[in-house]
Amino acid sequence: DLFRSNRLRSVVADLQSPEATIRDSAIERLEAMAKSGLTRDEARYALSAAAEAFPPLKYEWQSAAEELVSAASSAPDSSLVAPLLEHFDRYPASAQGAAIRLLAAIPDEKAAEALLAMLARCPEDADPGELRGLSEAPRHPDVLYPGLLRLLSRDALRWSILRVTLDYLEAGQLSSPDI
């Protein structure tokens, strides 16, 4: 709906403001929108906007791009795979981590394929954290393995991969020949 789309466009414009107070207010509005849930169109717009340049936020650890990708996570849907793939390389490392977590929450096989591709090409400092979506509902082991195991040499990915692999083993989704 047009009002909601314009509302998100306003937030993105405010995130690019030179005024820190306006950016802080935009983050609060974005968090409120994410809490109430973004529509698919809003989520796709947020993923596209996250590839833009933004001034720093109040706290050093915050990133407008990561906040936008995280907001899109309120509507995990297979329609988000294409924009994630399209914009992934232009995201800062923190937003790439959020993009990987979002893909892990999408139950679609294409999302699993994209997840593996993004993990392989993300920079060393992109930390996806827990891949909760895969751990909570193990799926597509034929797509993810043994590819995930080839990434164990990457320090930032090791814990996440080992955790997911253990969850897949416990769920009966993997057996010795798979790994």
Folded structure, characterized:
The chain has 179 residues and is mostly helical. 60% of the residues lie in helices and 0% in strands. The chain has ten helices and no strands. The longest helix has 17 residues, at 20-36. The mean pLDDT is 91.
**Helix/strand order, N-terminal first:** HHHHHHHHHH
Structural class: mainly alpha
Distance between the termini: 46 Å
Helix percentage range: 55-70%
Shape call: elongated
**Which spans of ≥5 residues are poorly predicted at pLDDT below 50?**
none
Task: Tell me the fraction of residues in β-strands, as a range.
Answer: under 5%
Describe the sheet with the most strands.
none
Count of distinct strands: 0
Supply Rg. Answer: 17 Å
Supply database-style keywords:
mainly alpha, 179 residues, elongated, single chain
List the helices and strands and how they pair.
Layout: H1 2-15, H2 20-36, H3 40-49, H4 64-72, H5 81-87, H6 93-105, H7 109-121, H8 132-136, H9 141-144, H10 155-170
Helix pairs in contact: 1-2, 1-3, 2-4, 3-4, 4-6, 6-7
Short description:
Helix content is 60%, strand content 0%. By secondary structure, the protein is mostly helical.
